[in-house]
Amino acid sequence: MRKTFADLHLRLNVRDHATALRVITKAAALGYRLIAVPFPPETHRDEVTKLKAVCSEAKIDFASRIDLRPRTQNELMHQLRRLRRKFEVICVACENKEVARQAAKDHRVDLLNFPLLDFRRRFFDRAEAELASNSLAALEIDIKPLLVLEGPARIRFLSSLRREAAIARKFHVPLVISSGVSEAKLLRRPREMAALTFLFGLDEASALKAVSHNPVAIVKRNREKLSAKFVAPGIRVIKEGKDC
Amino acid sequence: MKRVKRRYLALQVDSDGLPSQKEFMDAVWNAVTKLYGEYGASLTSMALIDYDVKKNTVVIRTSLATVDLVRTSLASITSVADKEAAVHVLAVSGTIKALRNKVRE
After folding, report:
1. What architecture is domain B15-104?
2. I want to staple A180 with a disulfide (CB 3.0 to 4.6 A). Which of A144, A147, B65, B81 is the partner?
3. For the purposes of burial, counting CB atoms within 10 Å of the CB of B47, is it exposed (0-12), middle (13-18) or buried (19 or more)?
4. For position A180, what pLDDT does the model report?
5. To the nearest whole angstrom, how far is the Cα of A147 from the nearest Cα of chain B?
6. Does position A244 have pLDDT exceeding 70, yes or no?
7. Among A189, A193, A200, A203, which would you mutate to test the B interface (most chain B Cβ atoms within 10 Å of its Cβ)?
8. What mean pLDDT do residues A23-40 have?
9. From the CA atom positions of chain A, what is the Rg in Å?
10. Domain contains A44
């Protein structure tokens, strides 16, 4: 069966229509069938609809995403309550340990993201992984730094990723590999993204899963939850009317 | 002596200007050396087989054991001859004939 490849982190400027169209068309040409673009929290519905139309023109599925950057646990809970039902993918950028732990145990969080270059603030340790494995949150790794960094910075980044990937594997935390790019030239084919993950110890099967099955499963699960027919996990309305 | 198995990779160069053969191969060797060092690069037995200027496609050869290493290095290329570029792998095959068939498909 053909794999559906997804990139859940395309950083597009929604107002720059031409660039957005170029990047989306390129993503479709490279073999992606699903992309997600992060929007600011106060985004108007029209902007999301507009981008959705651009994606359907390029014959690529689109998921709306929001990146939350709360400073405290309470702020995170407040933002989740406010935004969970508005976006298909929710990612939490964990800037401190308190937020990281809360995000890992909250069922409403889909992706955990850590500061790329501040290696002391990458809080994905065994405790974090254990919480994340119980709540279905996935660890998101952006490929962009691997392309743009060089020398000691890339060495340190790879070493952090190797440690985090090993912890994620041990605790069965799903990995999601995203591009995190805003330019078409930095986009890579899904299999090339998988090849780059060999640098931090992923095998081919898990690398391909991280660019296909894992991100697609997150979007599918959330679309089901956001649909009008969803009642509770495992329960949904299949027929309505007098003859039921 | 055991025969060394090889793989041929068809590549597409996505660049603003068209680099020369030498510039392209320099970029590939640089990427391999940066990621895996000179020892790793020496294991690849990489060679340029064909460089089609019109189609922007390149065929290179490498040993089977280092295909993943070469793929990773190719994906990490962001510039060729100081111009922004990306190198995409179109197909991988054991013979040039099969490779050409795969690319045509």
Report:
1. 2-Layer Sandwich (3.30)
2. A144
3. exposed
4. 92
5. 5
6. no
7. A189
8. 93
9. 18
10. no
The CA-atom distances, in angstroms, between A54 and each of A10, A47, A78, B15, B76 are: 14, 11, 32, 25, 29
Count how many domains chain A has. 1
What tokens does A117 get?
A: 């270059």
Contact residues on chain A for B89, CB-CB shorter than 8 A: 189, 191-192
Beta bridge partner(s), residue B51: B58
For residue B71, the chain A residues in CB contact (below 8 A) are 191-192, 195
CATH of the domain at A141: 3.20.20.140
Mean pLDDT across A9-15: 87
Q: Write out the residue range of the structural domain in which residue A162 sits.
A: 66-226
User: Would A236 be classed as within a structural domain?
Assistant: no
Higher pLDDT, A57 or A14: A57
**Tell me, what's the pLDDT at B22?**
93
Any CB–CB contact under 8 A between B86 and chain A? Answer: yes
Give the A window 74-93 contacts with B, CB below 8 Å.
none
Q: Which amino acid is located at B29 in the chain?
A: W
Residues of A in contact with B34 (CB under 8 A): 150
- B88 to A30: CB separation less than 8 angstroms, yes or no: yes
* Number of CB pairs, chain A paired with chain B, less than 8 A apart: 40
Asked whether A236 and A229 are in contact (CB, 8 A), the reply is yes
Is B89's CB within 8 Å of A191's CB?
yes
* A218 falls within a domain: yes
A84 within a domain of the structure (yes/no): yes
State pTM to two decimals. 0.89
Instruction: Determine the residue among B7, B13, B33, B88 to mutate to test chain A binding: the one whose Cβ has the most chain A Cβ atoms within 10 Å.
Output: B88
Choice among A134-138, A237-241, B100-104 with the minimum mean pLDDT: A237-241
Q: Are A198 and B68 within 8 A, CB to CB?
A: yes
